[in-house]
Structure formats: structure tokens, C-alpha cells
Amino acid sequence: MLNTAPFEFTAWYAALPVLVAAATFTWLLSLALRNLNAALPLWSLILFAAGVVYALQADPRAPRLSLVLWPLAAWALRLAGYHIVHNAGQVEHARLQAIRAHFPSHFALKSLYLVFWPEAALAWVVSLPLLGAFASIQPLGWLDYTGLVLWAIGFGFEVAGDWRPALRAGLPNYLGGAAAWWGFWLVACSAGAWWTLPGPVLMTWLLVRTQAAKARRDMPTTS
User: Fold this and answer.
1) Which end of the chain is more exposed for a tag (fewer CB within 10 A), N or C?
2) How many whole angstroms separate alpha carbon 131 and alpha carbon 154?
3) Residue 220 contacts by C-beta under 8 Å, 6 or more apart in sequence?
4) For residues 86, 46, 71 and 93, what is the CA-based torsion angle, rounded to 10 degrees?
């Protein structure tokens, strides 16, 4: 049986001000652009930032530093790059338009605590497997390689969705995002950090919720 890696609250907490600062800066950028689409690439970039914060505080002997950071960087840059390329100069994403329409009064200020700070808080929880992967110096095992394979499958689905809009708009792309994060969790489990389960569970819930909301928007009306 694997040993349980310690939960380093200090290391986890250290990432929070970094995420909040990045979210606040991006909010200021959105004010200058008068467009909330800046929040879209923020998601993956602050998750990568959290991973870097955890890595800097980890034991240098931790064998999963490179195993996690390189795939995390690839995942974050792919997703951020997609949003930047496809949403630059475009109207706001439908999800963001809906939030703006629901809170029309003083929305420029409200968007900070309705969009950007909640995004930082969610990323903080989702990032738990990254913290856990670096929490011990246990040697690599079969769970690490299983997690890496699962991450690669999920990442492959996401890359395919970048080139095939039909895939990106459908369930396979969201399954890819969930699979990638469950892969990180398996690596964390191999380090003994089974307690990072809320991270992939929250990521999966967010993806399912996003997919369901999109399906509702695309549903044809009868009136």
C-alpha cells in the first residue's frame, strides 16, 4: 500500500495570492479592452502558475517535477493559445455575455468578483493534484505511467478538437479535458496524495456543466 503524502497547506496557500493577482491583472486588461474574453486564456495559465509555485517549494529530489510540469505546460499553452487565437477581436463568449446580461448594473466592477476572482478560486482547488504530485519523493511507479497515458489520451482529444470544430463542440473535447486532469491525479496518487481528489472532481464537474450549458444554448426553440 502506498504511503500517504503530507498535505502541505503552506505550499497550497502560497499559490492563492499569485492566482488572485493574475486574475486581478487580467480583469484590468479586460476593462481596457472592454471585453471579458481575457478571462478565457487566464484559466489554463493560472493553473500552470500554481504548478510552478508548488514546484518551487517542493523537495528538489521529487521525481515527478518534470513528469508533471512539462505536460502541464503543454496543456496550458495549448488551451490559452486556442482562446487567444480564436477569440481575439471577437464578441464576448456566450457564457460571459450571459453573466453580463444578468448583472447589467456596474458590471465593470462586478466582473472582478463574479468572473475573475471565482476563476482564481476554482483553479486553486483544481490545482490540488499538482501540489500532491510534488508532495513526496516516492519513486515512480505504474500509476505514474498510467496517469501519463491517460493525460496523453485526453490531450490528444483536445488537440483533435482544435483542428476539428465538430469535435471541439461536442462531448469528446470535454472528455479529453477531464481525462487529462484525472491523469494528473493518478500521478499524485502514486506520490501518496490521494487526498487531491477534489481537483479532478471539480474539473470534471466544471466541464460537464459547461457542456450542458452549451447544449441548452444550442437547443432549437419552438417559438
Assistant:
1) C
2) 21
3) none
4) -20
